[in-house]
Write a structure and sequence with these properties.
Elements lengths: L3 H16 L10 H5 L3 E6 L4 H14 L3 E5 L16 H8 L5 H20 L3 E6 L2 E2 L4 H9 L6 E4 L6 E8 L5 E7 L7 E5 H10 L7 H5 L2 H4 L2 E5 L5 E2 L11 H6 L8 H19 L4
Parallel strand pairs: 1-2, 1-3, 5-9
Antiparallel strand pairs: 3-8, 4-10, 5-8, 6-7, 7-9
GO molecular function, one term: transferase activity
Keywords: Transferase
Protein name: Glycosyl transferase family 25
Length: 282
């Protein structure tokens, strides 16, 4: 029979081994969730006030922002535009390209490139005319839950017509697709690495405005969804758009007869959109 002293020594060793096991962190804490995703902000150098406004909000809500210096399309000569073929853009849109549209397109691709290079798994890309909030990251991550392949979720839209829900997230946001479009706006979306890599290939050359091209999952090969409610609000800067106003778009439109190719493209695109929304699986 073993002595009580020997038994006491054995218990002491076991307790010491238990104490060496590090405690498991709680994955559900707000700080852990915030570390899972980076926020990239597209901001023109001349729009310093917009950047400062977002920085104040980031401090308030304990968010980390990475600034992407936006491309100013106004200072780039037509001959210097890369990944752009004017006749193809004219064919698909029935008008000429606005300089601000080219700057928007190039800026978002730069943001995607920087995200892929970072090695992060997920990123939120925003434009500088939105307002941040404390629930943005957990709600955005919940919208991406269950994604196994390339996936993108638009978190803000100008319009939702014929919305078809697919599921409700753990944050009680409804995710789905729209049967009519375009929905407008690329001001805020969450994307994973696989999707970002695909977009960097399939969005070249520039055939459509970036916000229109982004939601065409049937063309990009990225599983693209949208939230029913906007996860962010627009700031007062939205009225002062840096891309173009209605008068600018009207000025570059072609004669109605020369826009027939654009009408045909949009008709075919709408058929694809219908099927894309109806055929999605829960």
């Amino acid at each position: 029979m073993q002595s009580p002293r020997f038994l006491f020594a054995g218990v002491t060793v076991i307790l010491e081994q238990i104490n060496r096991v590090p405690p498991c962190p709680d994955p559900g804490t707000a700080d852990d969730i915030a570390q899972q995703v980076s926020i990239y902000v597209i901001n023109l150098d001349r729009s310093r006030d917009r950047w400062e406004r977002l920085c104040k909000q980031a401090v308030e809500f304990d968010l980390h922002l990475t600034r992407i210096p936006a491309v100013d399309g106004r200072v780039i000569a037509d001959a210097d535009r890369v990944d752009f073929h004017p006749p193809s853009f004219m064919y698909h849109n029935g008008r000429k390209l606005l300089p601000g549209e080219y700057g928007c397109y190039r800026s978002h691709l730069i943001a995607l490139e920087q995200f892929v290079a970072s090695g992060d798994r997920v990123a939120i890309i925003i434009e500088d005319d939105v307002e941040l909030n404390e629930r943005l990251i957990p709600r955005a991550i919940a919208a991406m839950d269950g994604a196994k392949g390339a996936r993108l979720v638009k978190l803000v839209n100008h319009r939702l017509v014929g919305f078809k829900p697919i599921h409700k997230t753990s944050e009680n946001d409804v995710v789905g697709r729209c049967m009519h479009g375009p929905q407008g706006s690329a001001a805020c979306y969450i994307v994973n690495r696989k999707a970002a890599k695909k977009l960097l290939t399939t969005l070249k050359p520039m055939l459509l405005p970036y916000d229109v091209a982004l939601e065409r999952g049937w063309s990009t090969g990225v599983e693209t969804f949208t939230t029913f409610e906007n996860l962010v609000d627009f700031s007062p800067h939205r009225a002062d758009t840096t891309i173009g106003k209605r008068v600018h778009y009207r000025a570059v439109k072609r004669h109605p007869l020369l826009r027939l190719t654009a009408h045909w493209f949009r008709t075919c695109d709408q058929v694809h959109r219908w099927y894309y929304a109806i055929a999605m699986k829960r």
